[in-house]
Amino acid sequence: MNIQTNNNSKNAASSACAACKHQRKRCRPDCALARYFPASNPQQFKDVHRLFRVSNVTKILDSVPSARERDRAMQSIIFEAGARRRDPVHGVVGILRGLFDRVEATQMELESLRRQIAFQKCFRIQRAQMQQTQMGMFTNI
Ligand SMILES: [Zn+2]
């Protein structure tokens, strides 16, 4: 998952983040949203705003005390919003369903390969037994 964040404070000071631009307000150096919604990626903010609304995202950020957990929460929110834009019907569930289908197809392929290996082993054993039997027949002559 690739989420574009804005860690460049000089850049943040010179231009408002996508969230503040959208709200038409001044982006302050302590803007909680600037880190997650750089001005260079307004689509990311549009996706999140369309699905969650800015006020709800701010409430979520305020409810999470750890900076690391806030980053994770925002990654999840941004990912969900992007998935919903790409697939308005299924969103993240569509991604999960696709992954489950791939896992199921891979398991079926693995099972098929295991059967082929078992067959080859059985074939080799039978061939070796037949060769031993034939050698025994020739030595008894
Ligand atoms: Zn801002």
From TrEMBL:
Pfam families the UniProt entry points to: LOB (PF03195)
Residues annotated as domain LOB: 15-117
Name this polypeptide is given: LOB domain-containing protein 7
Family membership: Belongs to the LOB domain-containing protein family.
InterPro entries assigned to the protein according to its UniProt record, in alphabetical order: LOB
PANTHER family, per database record: LOB DOMAIN-CONTAINING PROTEIN 27-RELATED, LOB DOMAIN-CONTAINING PROTEIN 4-RELATED
Superkingdom of source: Eukaryota
